[in-house]
Request: fold
Amino acid sequence: AQKITQTQPGMFVQEKEAVTLDCTYDTSDPSYGLFWYKQPSSGEMIFLIYQGSYDQQNATEGRYSLNFQKARKSANLVISASQLGDSAMYFCAMRVANAGGTSYGKLTFGQGTILTVHP
Amino acid sequence: DGGITQSPKYLFRKEGQNVTLSCEQNLNHDAMYWYRQDPGQGLRLIYYSQIVNDFQKGDIAEGYSVSREKKESFPLTVTSAQKNPTAFYLCASSLGPGLGEQYFGPGTRLTVT
Reply:
């Protein structure tokens, strides 16, 4: 079974500072993908960044980067230069291939971290 | 504009009634998914469909039903058998089952009293 753990229920950061949101995962499948989504108070899930298990480099997308440490099974999200609009719930999720080798795309989500950016 | 639409945004029903949540996408995606989110929790998979006329149960399918008669549409029916139907329901789609990220709709907040 796959599991995602986000141990920080809430995080606070000052505007313009960087913040790291923690995510650890558990899977025995060698092929998997890790995703981060942002959920503002409106409820919609917004895709931020993706890291494949075989990717050699850490993923980056604008102010978002993923600190992927495969041996530790961690995939922390780093947000640089925080903005007030970054205040939201953030979810880490994982997609694996099933036992037959064909992924059906299921995402397993963590419990989320609420990020509050202070001016 | 390409995207996923869910209607309505808020839905209220009396206990014992079935209710159908709409999900439409114009992204030409093959795979579609339904998730449920309870307050302060992550998302849990209810049903998914890899292709038209095919769908499979997710982790919490009991009390729900779906259909996939058209590529663009994946409606979810919350039946009276679902014991705790009040929740936020999110529909998503992706290019294929294991391809690319999942794009989400705006969600439907269902309240059953």
User: Anything to note?
Assistant: Chain B touches chain A at residues 31, 33, 40-45, 48, 50, 56, 58, 88, 90, 92, 94, 96-99, 101-107, 109 (CB under 8 Å). Chain B has a mean pLDDT of 92. Chain B has no helices and eleven strands. The first strand of chain B starts at residue 4 and ends at 7.
